[in-house]
Write a structure and sequence with these properties.
The protein contains six helices and eleven strands. With 241 residues, the protein is an alpha/beta fold.
Length: 241
């Protein structure tokens, strides 16, 4: 069982994109890290960490990831077939070998190879890739994983995030507290939209200053996706193989 499974935790890190000819990749599988080696350099993708990769390297990584998923499925099917074939014999030693070679050590059931549920790498600048990434997050949450940000809490500022269920007074008070403009006589929906736009502006300002934002009402880190903003990504650094 992987360390992520043991802790039931997924970390999603705020990241930075540098350079124009780069592609943002991520591993949408909560249960394990993806690793690949290209030209002697090792590239690691923890679950859901967005990484900015040079476009030519990204193309190779994605091609390899698609092949890896297919290979894992073929290998798993072969192991299941071999397992039941070996277990069909009367030889008890063959049964023991089948369990040792072809079964998952944690479950005792075939196959030993765990197929990738989703391709190990997706392009977050592609709608299909983004959809798979979001599906992976939903699956992780439904499976009991806790979504966490990696930065220390001192790198955050707390501020209530305006929500559709806020009262007109709450939205108006937010505008007053943070220097927004608006009259209480305006429609409730308009005041809420103004409060949300102000929050996004403040979020962007804090992000430029190197800080994240924690919703003081929920205690959760506010992600760019929560505000309809494009996710950022950090540059991927490879290791010598």
């Amino acid at each position: 069982m992987s360390e992520v499974q043991k802790r039931k935790e997924v970390r999603i890190e705020p990241v930075e994109v540098l350079g124009s000819s780069r592609i943002i990749l991520a591993n949408p599988n909560a249960d394990r890290e993806y690793e690949d080696t290209i030209d002697g350099r090792v590239y690691r993708f923890p679950p859901f960490k967005r990484l900015s990769v040079e476009s030519d390297v990204a193309a190779q990584l994605m091609s390899n990831a698609a092949a890896r998923k297919l290979d894992s499925e073929i290998q798993a099917e072969a192991e299941i077939s071999d397992y039941y074939q070996m277990m069909g014999h009367d030889n008890k030693i063959m049964h023991l070998r089948a369990k040792k070679r072809l079964c998952d050590p944690d479950t005792g059931e075939p196959p030993r190879t765990k197929p990738w549920k989703r391709t190990p790498l997706v392009n977050l600048q592609d709608k299909a890739g983004e959809a798979l990434f979001n599906e992976g997050i939903e699956d992780a949450i439904n499976a009991g994983f806790e979504i966490r940000q990696e930065l220390a809490r001192e790198n955050y500022r707390e501020m209530a995030m305006p929500k559709p269920n806020w009262s007109k007074q709450a939205s108006y008070d937010f505008l007053q507290q943070y220097g927004g403009s608006g009259s209480y006589n305006e429609p409730e929906e308009r005041i809420y939209k103004k409060a949300r736009r102000l929050f996004i502006a403040l979020f962007n300002m804090r992000e430029k200053d190197g800080f994240g934002v924690i919703d003081s009402e929920t205690g959760k880190v506010v992600r760019r996706e929560d505000l309809g903003l494009e996710p950022e990504a950090e540059d991927l650094e490879a290791e010598e193989g």
